[in-house]
């Protein structure tokens, strides 16, 4: 029975994605209904097979959606439309994994690491190198970069280094490097949705976000240096990235950078030059570049195998993400269609006035509050974009977007439960609280303060 329901879920997810892409070309109502139907089937199948503890937040969101529709005596068609509210996010979340196919095809990262192995003998240099590599890889691999980076470095520890010191150093470097990517990386779903939801200009937002990310990396290094002295951490590493397979690494770094540039450049060209919505541009460019990569490397057989695995195995593991996305979409649709979104926006402005806060600062804290309530970044962005419209004060949309993204970045490292924390905990076998709040609260608060000041300074120009 479980196997049958899993197949139903996978086929419904594929139908949803296909209907979405077709609807962007052929605007027939049948494809909209197909998305809603596929979303409904996915929702039911997940509710049947997923553990009850995982369903607490989704059921709460679904219940709130139904309550809003019932209290306002609105038509049930609102809920049917809400099932496709996240139609642009679901293909993005699924297809972004294709980038990892390029990274794992050849030892690109090993070639990159071999360039810096002679410069990481001290703890500070090792930490800086690891954080920078984590940031770079996660910039186009998103959360997959956490596990990838951890596994690249996990065998470098010497016996003289304690497990506590090693886990703290490696895990905080990876987490801090990763969390800053959300501020500027176009392939990150939260960033892409904020850009689409606020209509912020892509390139100015990327540049301003990149500036804050670089400041954040420097901040992370200084905080580690302080924590290293405070905790008396002594990390000894073996900087040895030799190629066990005797593969040729010459020229791989440049080839890799060319493909990354092609990916990023393609997204900007589609979005800016062809005026394609970024939520559509990102998955389309990812598919085109990935296909082109395997064609150029004459590896179409492997490419087909990877697609087969995605369809038969990997999609079945996306239930948790899909239930959160679909339930958040129902709530956003109910809020938008019933007018409750405007009411909540009014309460938000009243609270900002009462606390005498700047609106941009208020947006950041709202995202953090949602994170501590259990909302993952993507549903939080969708929820806010459906509520917070017409921000007063004449602020530019790129600063509004950056304020929201700052909240996401802080939430990722200090909230009780986030996907990055789950991934890093699965690698070092430490608790979510230790990997998150205990080890990163100083960094999170410091990034919040520095980020708020950074954004306020930008408002002066």
Structural class: mainly alpha
Number of helices: 22
**What is the ordering of alpha helices and beta strands?**
HHHHHHHHHHHHHHHHHHHHHH
Radius of gyration: 22 Å
The protein's oligomeric status is single chain
Helix content: over 70%
Largest sheet: none
Number of strands: 0
Low-confidence stretches: none
Q: What is the typical, i.e. mean, pLDDT?
A: 86
Global outline: globular
Tell me the distance between the termini.
Answer: 61 Å
Strand content: under 5%
Number of domains: 1
Transmembrane segments: 7-23, 29-49, 56-80, 86-103, 124-150, 206-224, 252-270, 276-301, 322-348, 354-373, 378-395, 401-424, 436-457
Keywords: Membrane, Transmembrane, Transmembrane helix
Q: Can you give a write-up of this model?
A:
This protein is mainly alpha-helical and 461 residues long. It has one domain (89-317, 339-461). 75% of the residues lie in helices and 0% in strands. It has 22 helices and no strands. It has helices at 2-25, 29-49, 56-71, 77-82, 89-95, 98-105, 108-116, 123-141, 144-153, 163-179, 189-198, 202-231, 252-273, 278-296, 300-312, 319-338, 340-355, 359-372, 377-387, 397-414, 419-428, 432-458. The longest helix has 30 residues, at 202-231. The radius of gyration is 22 Å and the shape is globular.
């Amino acid at each position: 029975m479980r196997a049958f329901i899993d197949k139903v879920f996978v086929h419904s997810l594929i139908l949803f994605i296909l209907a979405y892409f077709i609807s962007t070309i052929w605007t027939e109502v049948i494809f909209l209904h197909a998305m809603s139907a596929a979303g409904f089937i996915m929702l039911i199948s997940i509710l049947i097979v997923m553990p009850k503890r995982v369903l607490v937040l989704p059921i709460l969101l679904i219940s709130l959606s139904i309550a809003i529709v019932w209290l306002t005596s609105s038509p049930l068609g609102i809920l049917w439309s809400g099932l496709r509210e996240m139609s642009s996010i679901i293909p993005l979340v699924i297809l972004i994994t294709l980038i990892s196919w390029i990274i794992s095809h050849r030892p690109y990262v090993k070639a990159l690491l071999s360039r810096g192995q002679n410069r990481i003998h001290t703890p500070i240099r090792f930490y800086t190198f690891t954080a920078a590599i984590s940031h770079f890889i996660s910039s186009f691999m998103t959360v997959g970069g956490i596990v990838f980076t951890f596994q690249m470095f996990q065998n470098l520890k010497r016996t003289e280094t304690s497990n506590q010191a090693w886990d703290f150093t490696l895990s905080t470097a990876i987490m801090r490097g990763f969390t800053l990517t959300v501020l500027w990386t176009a392939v990150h779903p939260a960033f892409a949705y904020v850009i689409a939801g606020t209509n912020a200009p892509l390139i100015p937002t990327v540049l301003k976000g990149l500036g804050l990310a670089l400041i954040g990396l420097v901040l992370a290094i200084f905080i580690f240096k302080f924590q290293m002295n405070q905790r008396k951490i002594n990390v000894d590493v073996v900087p040895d990235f030799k190629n066990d397979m005797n593969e040729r690494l010459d020229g791989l770094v440049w080839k890799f950078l060319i493909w990354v540039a092609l990916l990023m450049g393609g997204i900007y060209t589609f979005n800016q030059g062809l005026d394609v919505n970024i939520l559509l541009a990102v998955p389309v460019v990812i598919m085109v570049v990935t296909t082109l990569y395997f064609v150029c490397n004459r590896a179409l057989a492997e490419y087909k195998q990877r697609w087969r695995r995605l369809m038969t195995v990997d999609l079945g593991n996306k239930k948790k993400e899909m239930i959160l996305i679909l339930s958040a979409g129902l709530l956003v649709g109910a809020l938008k269609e019933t007018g409750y979104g405007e009411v909540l926006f009014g309460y938000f402005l009243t609270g900002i006035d009462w606390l005498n806060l700047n609106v941009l600062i208020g947006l950041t804290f709202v995202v953090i509050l949602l994170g501590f309530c259990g909302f993952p970044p993507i549903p939080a962005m969708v929820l806010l974009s459906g509520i917070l419209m017409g921000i007063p004060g004449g602020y530019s949309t790129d600063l509004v977007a950056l304020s929201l993204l700052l909240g996401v970045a802080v939430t990722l490292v200090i909230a009780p439960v986030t996907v990055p924390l789950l991934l890093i905990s699965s690698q070092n076998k430490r608790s979510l609280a230790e990997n998150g709040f205990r080890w990163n609260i100083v960094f999170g608060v410091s990034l919040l303060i520095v980020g708020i000041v950074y954004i306020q300074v930008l408002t002066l120009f």
